[in-house]
Amino acid sequence: MAWFVPAMMALSTGLTLLGHKQTIKNIKVDKAWQEYKDTIAMNREKQILLEKQTKDLSKKRAMAGKGGYGFTGTPLFIAQKDIEKMEDDLFYLEKGYFIKNASADAKATGLITAEVYKAGSTLLQAGISYNTYTTNKALAEKGILTSTPSITG
User: pTM for the complete prediction?
Assistant: First the structure.
């Protein structure tokens, strides 16, 4: 029956490590899912911005045609400024999502690091516990230790 305690210690440690590994997987999956949702949201916002710009330019061309003059000269410069503003808006939209994803990456990295630390701590504690168990067992077999020592005395 001397094998039972070390076997249970090993089983407990193994299950705890599996739990940490699963938590790390969950963090990675959650981050990937959030990144996917953000990409879809960004693409939708881009599409809305492009549709709005298309309607605005179409309206300006129609007004120029209705007025009897071509879409050249001043209306063309105004349209160019509108297109440049839309390109700036797209740039900042993409930058915003990039920053949001970079922040999520940093957060996920921190969570994963914490889990790896906990797993290492679990292994260290298991080694210490096993060492204490074997030392106490050897002392008890020699008759030196008759009861488990307590911290409080």
Answer: 0.69
Q: DSSP assignment, residue 68? A: T
Domain ranges for the chain, please list them.
Answer: 31-132
Give yes or no for a contact between 20 and 122, defined as CB atoms under 8 angstroms apart: yes
Q: CA 142 → CA 131, 139, 146, distances in Å? A: 17, 5, 10
User: CB–CB of 99/111 below 8 Å?
Assistant: no
Encode the chain (153 residues) as per-residue pLDDT tens digits. 567 888 888 889 999 999 999 999 999 999 999 999 999 999 999 999 989 988 888 887 777 777 666 666 666 777 788 888 888 989 999 999 999 999 999 999 999 999 999 999 999 999 998 888 888 888 888 877 666 555 554
Between CA 130 and CA 135 the distance in angstroms is 9
